[in-house]
Write a structure and sequence with these properties.
The complex is a heterodimer of chains A (210) and B (254). Chain A is built from five helices and no strands. The chains are: A mainly alpha (210), B alpha+beta (254). Chains A and B meet through helix 2, helix 3, helix 4 and helix 5 of A and helix 1, helix 2, helix 4 and strand 14 of B.
């Protein structure tokens, strides 16, 4: 990342005094020096797009088995997924609220623990989505039977892509101020879209039960 | 930066590791796909094909998917098979024989036959281990249906009686069935969603209130627990299964 600031035709845009200061070995450094001003989102975006496409291609080409691991305590894989997804959606809402608090957009409510709450609710939400996605991809695959399943499949792949983008963008110093809110908002929107086309659909179709 | 550099990466890695573990466990839990398909006697063709048409609810392809509440098949009491039917709309010309017939094979199994326009679907089951799904056409009351593994049904419909023969696995049975008269659906099948999850099932709800059915559970047919006709659901081994009334001609449904 230190390399982003190095010379180049457009370096004048960001020719601060910190150029070449960070010379620590950076495990996330982009091996190819980027020519983009500020911190580059190129790699996070590319990797995120790659994740999205890879999930979609896998879901489409892998023959769905119809079977995957189940969790105890639920009546079936469907309800497990429905509730895990609902849990993720809940923590996604916590994400938005804690982010608003972090950025002082909740009036005077900006507790010192908002940052920690944001990080942990995000981790929990993400980890809750993983088993659901594995079941979807392994047992069902990318479906386009109707608008709901198509939207769900596409948004599901997109969610993990844009989440990857967010995670890779987070540590980058010097991001434009709008980047994290926008990417975070997209992550939230994608997850809620996935949730609406699965859990909410399930609840309204089959009723709320375990 | 308020965020430590490593933690987002750790989050991603943790998620990936969790996914890898679950994929591995799933791979061990799931039988190889082709074997699983072949095991399902009733619907070898269905796991892939049915997705578009398997929802027997008529107006599926359009906006309905976007409206979660509007899955008509789930509420059998409502109006499921009656209204719009894009696949086979005009009961072209003369006598429409739309309806449902239930009856018996001479071997003792139960049969349900449902007709919409020129399309028909029939289901034969003995309530224990035998189940046969066939679908096909009705031309001037003449039935010509076929199903997996060479199963066939031929016969004719004359008023409220349907008669003919069912052949499957080298055996042939004669059947007689009478019209259920009423709009209530008599033939249910596990939804495409359930079938995608590896479970198939068929239920015949006879006019006298009794019902019979077979659930194919991981390729193994077992006696089906009664279906709650109000919700189209039942519980098998603790797993809730949803079924829908079969509407012939709705793609490959039924």
């Amino acid at each position: 990342m230190a390399e982003h600031r190095r010379g180049g035709p457009r370096a004048t845009i960001d020719a601060g005094p910190t150029v070449r200061v960070e010379m620590l070995p950076d495990p996330f450094a982009d091996p190819v020096p980027s020519r983009v001003p500020r911190a580059s989102l190129l790699v996070p975006l590319l990797v995120g797009a790659g994740v999205t496409v890879a999930l979609g291609v896998y879901g489409r080409t892998h023959p769905p088995t119809g079977i995957a691991v189940n969790l105890a305590g639920f009546s079936g894989p469907q309800t497990v997924k429905v509730w895990l997804g609902t849990g993720a959606a809940f923590f996604a809402v916590v994400q938005v609220l804690s982010a608003l608090a972090m950025w002082g957009r909740l009036g005077g409510f900006a507790p010192s623990w908002a940052g920690a709450a944001h990080r942990w609710s995000g981790r929990v939400a993400f980890l809750l989505t993983v088993p659901v996605a594995v079941h979807c991809l392994y047992a069902l695959g990318f479906a386009d039977a109707d608008l709901r399943t198509l939207l769900h499949s596409a948004l599901g792949c997109f969610f993990f892509g844009v989440f990857t983008t967010k995670m890779l963008a987070l540590p980058k110093p010097g991001l434009a101020g709008w980047v994290l809110p926008v990417v975070g908002g997209v992550v939230f929107t994608a997850l809620i879209g996935v949730w609406l086309t699965s859990s909410v659909w399930y609840f309204t179709t089959f009723g709320v039960h375990r | 930066m308020p965020m430590k550099r490593m933690t987002p990466m750790l989050t991603l890695l943790t998620g990936s590791a969790l996914a890898a573990v679950l994929f591995t466990m799933s791979a061990q839990a799931a039988p190889p796909a082709p074997q699983f398909r072949a095991g399902a006697p009733a619907a070898p063709a269905s796991p892939d094909a049915p997705s578009p048409g398997a929802e027997p609810d008529g107006p599926a392809p359009t906006g309905e998917a976007a409206d979660p509440g509007a899955q008509p098949g789930v509420q059998p009491g409502a109006t499921p098979p009656a209204p719009s039917e894009p696949a086979a709309p005009p009961p072209s010309g003369p006598p429409s024989v739309d309806g449902t017939w239930t009856g018996r094979l001479d071997g003792g199994a139960t049969i349900a036959l449902t007709v919409r326009g020129d399309r028909a679907t029939a289901y034969v089951c003995d309530g224990r281990s035998l189940e046969i799904w066939v679908r096909g056409t009705v031309t001037g009351g003449v039935l010509d249906l076929s199903g997996a593994d060479g199963a066939t049904l031929t016969g004719r419909i004359a008023g409220d009686r349907a008669t003919g023969e069912v052949t499957s696995g080298g055996r042939t049975w004669a059947f007689t069935a009478t019209a259920t008269g009423g709009d209530a659906p008599a033939l249910y099948r596990a939804t495409a969603q359930v079938r995608d999850a590896g479970i198939d099932g068929g239920w015949i709800l006879l006019p006298d209130g009794t019902q019979t059915g077979v659930v194919t559970w991981n390729g193994r047919p077992v006696s089906a627990p009664p279906l709650d006709p109000a919700f189209g659901t039942t519980i098998v081994d603790g797993v809730r299964i949803t079924a829908e009334p079969v509407v012939p001609g709705a793609g490959t449904g039924g």
